[in-house]
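Example: Crossover junction endodeoxyribonuclease RuvC.
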Amino acid sequence: MRILGVDPGLTRCGLGVIESASARRVTLVDVRVATSPSTFETPARLAQISAVLEAVLDEHRPEALAMERIFARSNVSTIMGTAQVSGVIMLAAERRGIPLSLYTPSEVKAAVTGDGRAGKEQVTFMVQRLLGLAEAPRPADAADALAIGIAHAWRGAAAPVGSGATTDAQRRWAEAEKAARRRS
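Written out as structure tokens, the predicted fold is:
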């Protein structure tokens, strides 16, 4: 399955395309960071991010799109920009009929590292290791986009948890999700 992972942002939007062949095997197809200058007006910035997104969608034709879910931060302007870019991405996925899944940062960290509170360095290291890359993806937005894609591959498109084809991180994630459902 070909998956586009997206780390939305108005200044830097990470776009990572991976292939998932099995529960444990993911390979890098492409990774980019769409940027827009803060000196541009918001509509022009959204158009610039959208143009790069559309190019990635046209070139790689993903079967699924996974994106980081917006979470509360103290900076309202950052939240607004991220929300606006997320809307552009959601619209592009909907228009193309690509299934979209949203993941919290802690869900992504748990899937990739086994720890929902892992730091950026640990996530980047695991992305590099899981994809067999000689160097870590830079900037962090690129690594985050790839981590989001990997999280989706392991959660939605992979072997069922407990099948023997799952990793320790996948089993821990499934247990955390089950516990969260019981609490709600």
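The two ends are 32 Å apart (CA to CA).
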